[in-house]
Amino acid sequence: MSVKNLLACASAALALALAAAPAAAQKKYDPGASDTEIKIGQTMPYSGPASAYGTIGKAEAAYFKMINEQGGINGRKINFISLDDAYSPPKTVEMVRRLVEQDEVLLVFQTLGTPSNTAIQKYMNAKKVPQLFVATGATKWNDPAGNPWTMGWQPNYQTETTIYAKHILKEKPNAKIGVLYQNDDYGKDYLKGLKDGLGDKAKSMIVAEVSYEVSDPTVDSQVVQLQGSGADVFVNITTPKFAAQAIRKAFDIGWKPVHYLNNVSTQIGSVLTPAGLEKSVGLISTAYIKDPLDSQWANDPAIVEWTAFMKKYYPDGSLIDNSNVYGYTVAQTLVQVLKQCGDNLTRENVMKQAASLKDFTPNTLLPGVKINTGPKDFAPIESVQLMRFDGKSWVRFGNVISADAQ
Amino acid sequence: MSAVAPAAATPLSPVASQRRLPWVGLAVLLIAACALPFLVSNYRTFQFTLVLVYAIALLGLNILTGYNGQISLGHGAFYAIGAYVAAILMDRFGVPYWATVPIAGALCLVVGFLFGLPALRLEGHYLALATFALGVTMPQLLKNKAVEHWTGGVQGIVIVKPDAPFGLKLSQDQWLYLFTLAITVAMFVIGWNLIRGRVGRALVAIRDHPIAASAMGIDTARYKSLAFGVSAMYTGIAGSLGAIAIQFVAPDSFGIGLSIGLLTGIVIGGLASIPGAIFGAFFIQFIPNIADQISKAAPWAIYGIFLIGFMFLMPMGINGAIRLGWARLRHRISAQRKGG
Amino acid sequence: MEAFLHQVLGGLATGGIYASVALALVMIHQATHLLNFAQGEMAMFSTYIAWALINAGVPYWVAFFLTIGFAFVLGLAIQHFVMRNIRSTSVLQLVIVFIGLLVIFNSVAGWIFTYTIKVFPSPFPKGAVFGQKYLSPHELGAIGVTLIVLTLLWAFFRFTSLGLAMRAAAQNPGSSRLVGIRVAWMLALGWGLAAAIGAVAGMMVAPIVYLDPNMMAGVLLYAFAAALIGGIDSPAGAVLGGFLVGVLENVLGAYVVGNELKLGVALVLIVGVLLVKPSGLFGSVQVTRV
Predict the structure, then answer these.
(1) Model confidence over A199-253: pLDDT tens digits?
(2) Chain B closest CA to A245's CA: distance in Å?
(3) For chain A, which ranges sit under pLDDT 70?
(4) Burial class (CB within 10 angstroms; exposed 0-12, middle 13-18, buried 19+) of C175
């Protein structure tokens, strides 16, 4: 071989080595990530009994579309694959396996429903694929030691009812509490929080615990039962349709308890207006996110921005449904996590960055509520504030209560 | 005489070769089924395992509804019982997975038989309604506080998937598929024998001419309850296998949608037919996925259109359509032979 | 005692819902000898049409009657284009078709109107009736409307020749044709009327339970129970059955078995009645010739 050729080979080899070395140090990909795209998987109940929540998936898809139009994340487009699981855990298992094994997504995002997520949790952790920001408030998702690949997002249900319990103990220590709850894990999780919050006094203070099924036409009979029990505090753990019925019925039969309503059903547009705004006066709940129909946020930049987003990217979506604000905000959180990943798009790094959110504050969250995570803290939002409905808006009172401090 | 000579030249007469054909076909199918998990991904193997599970359940329902004419809109309840039996035994009592299957079957046999007793007095759409009520009620019963300690209530039970035994180099999905396949074949053989024999003829007689059947000395009450029991047993076995495959049971997985899906499966697959159970299983496993891909906005509307379309075009189910097509083909071939 | 009375009256209110849907089921059975599982979803869809009209500014009663007309035509269309062409009279094939219709209506309603609950207005004046708080004006009004529909239906079948012709066509199509009854028309008419009654039921139910695509899902089983208990061929029986089911559900749920077994109550009711008196309380006994 001539000297010229040898030199050419050597310089080529050197160039190659120089080029390869930083690349090897900079860009790392797991299945689902590449120079041009990030594949994200999701299952949502687009059909079946929980189909009302399907709009969350659509809002998130619209948000990712907007991000793509703005250039993507660090130059990569989001490929969002959202499948219908009809709120049936076996279908969730099948769809998630497809996303992970066939579509080879980088992570699974915001799967909705406690049973659906319970069904896939073991699988996701065994396969080491992030089960990120699950769309349920069940308490069990904050378990970094046992399930390091699973993380929730919203304040968990037990925290919420524990806060109500503490409030009741402070304001009305001799209260007689009547509870209406949905007979599934969401309802029972809330109930547990209430009982834990009341501690030893739970047995004596709770005079009636009444459940209903999603398939029941109305909960009118249950509300009548609660009135009949003599309760003067009503802890109302219902999903939007039944919440509206319960609020209306309680008013119509002349029952005026101190009425705590779970955060899931506080939308002015889709719950309180159907129930009757005048019948909803005095309701107490907690919040961490802004309600688009609340007049106090009418000119708030966050809601204005959100409304513009909805009109452009999700015109079919309801502008009075809080779920669409929720979806918008969670999607923002994921985008933040992916941005923090930079060029290291391994699943391990995704979880690491998800567990490194410091005071991340999407502007649709209530003032004072921030997102914080850590290696031992897999609960992004733990702050809520109590609020009372005055017939027109939800008026916040007290301080922002945070479980983060613990 | 000259017609015999050409026939004698061929080693098998047309009739005999036709009789052998289904056996050859079946053997090919079986070999293909065994080879499947090694040819496709784990995910597909998992899906095919579910197809087998549904096939067992559908065969069970077919015995009751197709062959015996008793409509059941509540077979999801037996599936649920089978699934929970497997889950509770594995999770709470540490019973090995392969033992839970026969136990689930035995329990469902008894429960089905017991449910069949009052059902004796019901016919047609009244029976459909009673079983519909059973199917609707099942999730609520599973969530009940009284049994919460066993069933895990609304939280459900998470099961561990078994590994291949004897250190075989198979993935969990592959092993489970082969295990399920073995049980499926066994159940189908049992079912085929049942249908082919005296019991099957009695069931069909009861379906078509109940009064004449009892006049001929068939104990209709015994056979009808037996049909319920056996059918429940099949569905319970399917449920236990399904639970092991999915690794999770929860009350809301077993609502009325499952029962309706099973009934849809046998009608689409072909009533009163054994292959129909397999066709139906493919339908209920894969068509919802296909519908979802066709229309994200209203996938179940597409599914509904599929259902109605099938009833328009193939009222006897896929099996019926195949038989019709096959009969026409044979007719054409034999006509050609005679003419040519 | 007051609580008990309250539960009973509340049961009458929900019973009114079941009764109105049961009427539609009885109607379709009278005309075709079939149990239409899709009846609830058709009613729900018709109610959405009414909602859309009212939302567009149409006054309530105009929308009400327009919707009844729409539902009637819808029923006719389904019979003409779908049912007539199913070349089989096997019960099972028809059940599958009904299930197909059920999922189509549910899915399309969700797609067009989304799954957020909607308020459906009540035509009855607000304010307590007779000063009592147990039954709202709408609930009383709905019961009243159900009774009116029942009376109209009863009169139709009993006193009009058309009603007689319809019953004849369902009972014995062959002989009916021989006496000049246009059987195909009778079937279509039956479907149309059943759909119209369903629409009325939906519009009465929606203000109580709020309008969403899954509105009728829970009601259907209880409505079937009501129709069976009363006797599948007796409209009056269906209404009575509806009230009975409503009251029993409430009372047993509140005092005896607990809310977690209310569906179980429906199950036991259905099986129990079918075992003891298969033709229901007011139905006629079917005699089959050997």
Answers:
(1) 999 999 999 999 998 878 889 889 999 998 999 999 999 988 899 999 999 998 8
(2) 22
(3) 1-25, 403-406
(4) exposed
Residue ranges and CATH numbers for the domains of chain A are: 37-155+299-383 (3.40.50.2300), 157-287 (3.40.50.2300)
Q: Is 80 exceeded by the pLDDT of residue B8?
A: no
Contacts of C11 (CB under 8 A, 6+ apart): A221, C243, C246, C247, C248, C249, C250, C251
Pair B175, B169: CB distance under 8 Å: no
Q: Check: CB of residue A385 under 8 Å from CB of residue A369.
A: yes
Architecture of the CATH domain B36-303: Orthogonal Bundle (1.10)
Interchain contact B163–A (C-beta under 8 A): no
Eight-class DSSP state of A36: S
- The domains of chain C are located at 19-215
Q: Which amino acid is at C173?
A: P
Which one of A183, A220, A248 would you mutate to disrupt binding with C, by most C Cβ within 10 Å of its Cβ? A220
Q: Tell me the two tokens of residue B272.
A: 């009163």
Q: How would you class B150 by CB atoms within 10 Å of its CB: exposed for 0-12, middle for 13-18, buried for 19 or more? A: middle
The mean predicted confidence, pLDDT, of chain A is 88
pLDDT per residue over A48-95, tens digit each? 778 888 899 999 999 999 999 999 999 999 999 999 988 889 999 999
* Interchain pair B134, C267: CB under 8 A: yes
Tell me, rounded to whole angstroms, the distance of Cα A60 from its chain centroid: 12
- Please enumerate residues of A whose Cβ is less than 8 A from a Cβ of B: 46-48, 83-84, 86-91, 93-94, 97-98, 101-102, 115, 118-119, 121-123, 183-185, 187-188, 213, 215
Its pTM surpasses 0.95: no
ipTM of the complex: 0.84
Show the 3-state SS of C31-72: HHCCCCCCHHHHHHHHHHHHHHHHHCCCCHHHHHHHHHHHHH
pLDDT exceeds cutoff 70 at C67 = yes
C211 — phi, psi (to 5°)? -90, 120
Judge whether C190 and C32 are in contact, CB under 8 Å.
Answer: yes
Specify the amino acid at residue A222: Q
- Kindly compute the dihedral angle of the four CA atoms of residues A52, A55, A57, A62, in this order, to the nearest 10 degrees: 180
Report angle CA A268, A269, A270 to the nearest 5 degrees. Answer: 105
The burial class, CB within 10 Å (0-12 / 13-18 / 19+), for C174 is exposed
- Which strands sit side by side in the sheet containing A107-109, from one edge to the other? A77-84, A37-44, A107-109, A131-132
CA atoms of A370 and B334, how far apart (whole Å): 80
